[in-house]
Model the fold of this input.
Amino acid sequence: MKGPDRGMPEAGQERPGEGPLQRADRNMIELLQELRVAQTGVQILFAFLLSLSFTDRFTRLDEMQRWTYIVTLLLSVITAGLLVAPAAAHRMTFRRGVKQQTVQLGHKLFTAGLATLALTLTGSVLLVLDVATTDEIAVPVASAVGVILLGLWFVLPLRLLRRPRNGGTVASGRPDEERTPART
Done:
């Protein structure tokens, strides 16, 4: 099936004359490009969180705010690790004949990184709003932010996999696999 914009197949689908290794190379390049988008923001967020502990106001945080800070800081480190891991896996397995498996591993690590990023951003909002307002405002707003991020990053894209495509097929949800017939 062709993509709507350029008459090209969608990501993950084989292109004319493209074999499994070429597709794995293309998918790895696409994955690494997507990681670049997320990594920069996570690095900036981590630096911001790290610097907070060196401010005068940090000593005035109550116990909930301090634990929110600690958990959020640790989540940002885990997120950074998960988002760097696909590039590290690619480097460690370079020219070892496991490109397709490396792409699949990278996909799983990136997905886990998006989940921890949503938690990190939610924790950051919770901390800032709790310091700036009250926990009665901070908790529901941060919860709403978390729900919105999970909806945008997971629920919305997964819904695309359930929609019938041209030819009456439904995406399987796994990159590079054949499409399964749509349920009618």
